[in-house]
Amino acid sequence: MSNENTKIGYALASSTGSGFIGAILVTDCKGFPLEFQYTDPILPTKIQQVLYGSGLEQYLKVDVILDSLMKVISNKVDILIVKDEQMLGYKSSKVDIVRMSPVNIAETTQENEIQKTKDNEYIVKFSKTSPPLRIQFATAVDENNPVYTKVMELTKYTNNFIDLTEPLERVQKTVELILSKEN
Hints:
With 183 residues, this protein is α+β, with helices and mostly antiparallel strands. The protein has helices at 46-52, 56-72, 146-158, 166-182, and strands at 8-16, 19-27, 33-38, 79-82, 96-102, 113-118, 121-125, 133-137. β6 (113-118) and β7 (121-125) form a beta hairpin. It has an 8-stranded mixed sheet with strand order 3-2-1-4-5-8-7-6, with helices on both faces. The model has no long low-confidence stretch (mean pLDDT 89). The termini are far apart.
């Protein structure tokens, strides 16, 4: 796979006053939009709230919203970057899923350095101008894992063009615009 042909998916699902809503943006490696899909708000019933208990939010975000979004996108994504940790629970053999967030730590890594902070988490810094990133995988990965290698190569390459966490902000703002038009 050539990095310049990389397609990155950015997905989020959140609770709003209208219910749970999700969206996915597919971009090229430079952050230009290729596709955008979203769900209508889902308002769980009282019975669902009781039956699912504390697992309702994760069920809606992962099994209902993210699953339906992944089924409707027409672009095959090489990596899926999700907004929150719960969404790492999505099971797919077709895409590698990670959560990325900027790190605001003064004594972070040097440029081109990778620090392992947990079995499934790394802090990376690939440029002087962009902030370090926390990359979380769904499960424990080490440096010999092909998923680790793929994610780090894509992150390093794409970081030359965009802040990898910025498109998630665009997805959030777009969802807010959609919701404001519905009310």
